[in-house]
TrEMBL record:
Natural source organism: Ciconia maguari
Protein name: Gap junction protein
GO biological process entries: cell-cell signaling
Gene3D superfamilies linked to this entry: Gap junction channel protein cysteine-rich domain (1.20.1440.80)
Alphabetized SMART domains for the sequence: CNX (SM00037), Connexin_CCC (SM01089)
GO molecular function: gap junction channel activity
PANTHER family reported for this sequence: CONNEXIN, GAP JUNCTION BETA-7 PROTEIN
Location (main, coarse): other
Function: One gap junction consists of a cluster of closely packed pairs of transmembrane channels, the connexons, through which materials of low MW diffuse from one cell to a neighboring cell.
Summary of subunit composition and partner proteins: A connexon is composed of a hexamer of connexins.
Amino acid sequence: MSWGFLRDLLSGVNKYSTGIGRIWVAVVFIFRLLIYIAAAENIWKYEHDEFECNIKQPGCENVCFDHFFPVSHIRLWALQLIMVSTPSFLVVFHVAYRENREKHHNQKLYKSPGEIDGGLLCTYLISLILKTGFEIVFLVLFYKLYNGFEVPRLVKCDIRPCPNTVDCYISKPTEKIIFLYFLVATSCLCIVLNLSELSYLIFKYSIKCYLKRYIKKCQ
């Protein structure tokens, strides 16, 4: 599939992000999207064809593969990329709403439509919470589906129609596990960046509100 839409989305979000948000965009674009397109997709491309069992019983290899890999790593990774990026649409839509509102009233209603304050701040915080939540959900999903972040060289299968316990071999397990660890590391980094940005915005807004109240009291 073409990932151009996601690239355009991330480019649009970058204009309205804080410094930490721009780092998050860079991590997603360089260390996740480009790595996925350039390398990871090819490693898992023929995973079903290269999955071999030491018996040629019709249907045995298929059921064993489906048991150990209920969802392809690479498809789950692609879904994760899409899900963690889509909450950013909320910010883009909110800015577009502000711009259209100014055009409709034909006057300046905001200091800047892309400035993170008021309702846009709430939208931005919600998008950060959603992105963090999706990251955590997918990490747990990876861990549960594959019994940890491991890719074994050999798996034993005794599911029908296999006549007995058979040995099945996974292709390029070392290469796959390296990319799986890379996936986990970048996901954790994105979670840390999202939480840092969330804390920064809340702290900044709290200080701003406190200063306003203090100035009013002084006046």
